[in-house]
Amino acid sequence: MTRPAFSVCVYCGSRPGEDPAFADAARAVGRWIGVHGGQLVYGGGRSGLMGLVAEATREAGGRVVGVIPQALVDRELANRQCDELHIVQTMHERKALMAERSDAFLALPGGIGTFEELFEVWTWRQLGYHDKPLGLLNVAGYYDGLLSFLQGSVASGFLGEWQMELLRAGSDAAALLTALVQDAGANAETSALRKVI
Fold first, then answer.
1. How many CA atoms does the CB half-sphere of 58 hold within 13 Å?
2. Does residue 62 contact residue 82 with C-beta atoms inside 8 Å?
3. Is the pTM of this model over 0.90?
4. To which H or E segment does residue 186 belong?
């Protein structure tokens, strides 16, 4: 089996949302990953945007790695079509394994779970626990309010501009994914050089 060219962790809603643009974006992200020979790492569900991004990745020839807690499997929410489906006991295990298996992270529209996962991996990055790139796909202005709030946090002195620069936001899925994958490759090369030196 050919090793994937890259691995992107996608955080997104287990619901489809009200605007059809959300579902279109999830499919576009999945297609891009698959067409470019990549691997999707995600929460392992089959509903909402999660199911759409996984299905689109698989249909476009990409690999799909799902990581889901036993509690959600018990509620019959697991996507059995994944190339790999890891069933874990806790959310902590889920997030750690998803981060470990990924080269970059991308948040699509979603709810509290999506917010929490994005903020945790962003926190890990600013603390130096990883150097993997982070992206926020702002579909149909969904994250306008959040981005405005974050800039307010910078203005109030609770968030630094350098921390904001760790999160790449954009509304074009292909452009954002291209940048994240390129950044991941550059970071991997730098890490390899550090090991050699």
1. 17
2. no
3. yes
4. helix 173-196
